[in-house]
Amino acid sequence: MVELDAFYMDIHEVMVDQFKQFVQESGIIQVTASYEVNGTMWLFTHRPMSTQ
Predict the structure, then answer these.
(1) What is the pLDDT at residue 50?
(2) DSSP 1-52
(3) What percent of the chain has pLDDT over 70?
């Protein structure tokens, strides 16, 4: 059994390629790992701490 804390799910579907493009162009977040499980791609991300 898997238990998760509450999280926000957006109403707009985003494909992996669209998300990768956003990550590369924005630099806001970084992909730290990716895994494919049963045909579904999972991207693990983090937001770097601000240096300001």
Answers:
(1) 61
(2) ----------SS---HHHHHHHHHHH-SSEEEEEEEETTEEEEEEE-PPP--
(3) 90
Check pLDDT > 80 for residue 44. no
Q: pTM of the entire structure?
A: 0.43
Sequence-separated (6 or more) residues with CB below 8 Å from residue 44: 31, 32, 33, 34, 35
Cβ contacts of 34 within 8 Å, gap of 6 or more: 41, 42, 43, 44
